[in-house]
User: Fold this.
Amino acid sequence: PAEEEGPCGDWTYHEWAEAFSTNDLARTLPPRHIAVCRVQTGGRGRFNRQWIGEKGGLWASFTVPLDTPHEASSEICWGHLPLVAGVALLDMLRDMGIRNTRLRWPNDLLVGRSKLAGILVERPSDHMAVIGIGVNVFNDVAGIAGMVQDPPARLSDLLPDCPSVHGVMAALASHLDRVFTAFSRGGISALRDSLALAWAEPRPVTVFTDDETVQGIFTGIDDQGNPVLSLPAGRARTIPAHLVNRLKE
Ligand code: BTN
Assistant:
């Protein structure tokens, strides 16, 4: 059982001192609950990469209801949930006064070139998704720098008055609630304005699919959430999101 439980805005949170992965714990909860832990020993990222979850960071998984019939339309599709979480994180950080933040498609939150937060969405059932979010807050990031792909950033280095980990969870929960509600009603187009700013300036990337490697300038996403690259000679190329194995800057 969780050590501590209670309301967190319109969510209910369950906090464990230690967990293997909050995404696993969240699977057992109903929608609109949060599984959070102080130390996460088996945290995972996309492609089964390890996510190091030492004390002082926010390691939390939010459960959201999915309305299966809606998903026949491409507008509201669970594959867009990483973008929903990304927009919630960006809005939260902007509220805290942090500039220079951006998303790296589809689900990394960077400050400059450093990674502040990661998102891992999983779907345990037809009717629920788990949005796992890791945010470096006070945790020791210097110690993990050599073990992770991107140089890590943490909130307490960016904010003189950094909120507590609980404070960050509450702020994120409220933004996620708002962004998810807008998305459930209007699909990804409801996030169009926020997403237009989310990528910051266009930058060169390499996209890997099973069949090819495409180099170009990432300019944003189309209405379905697929990455759009500008290629030499002014051509644009949209790569179906489900074919992308990796996008490297
Ligand atoms: C990534 O960068 O690839 C995503 C990292 C996601 C990490 C969070 S921490 C809370 C939740 N539990 C997990 O096991 N992973 C996510």
User: Anything to note?
Assistant: Residues 21-23, 43-46, 49, 51, 53, 59-61, 108, 118-120, 132-134 surround biotin (CB under 6 Å). The chain has five helices and 13 strands.
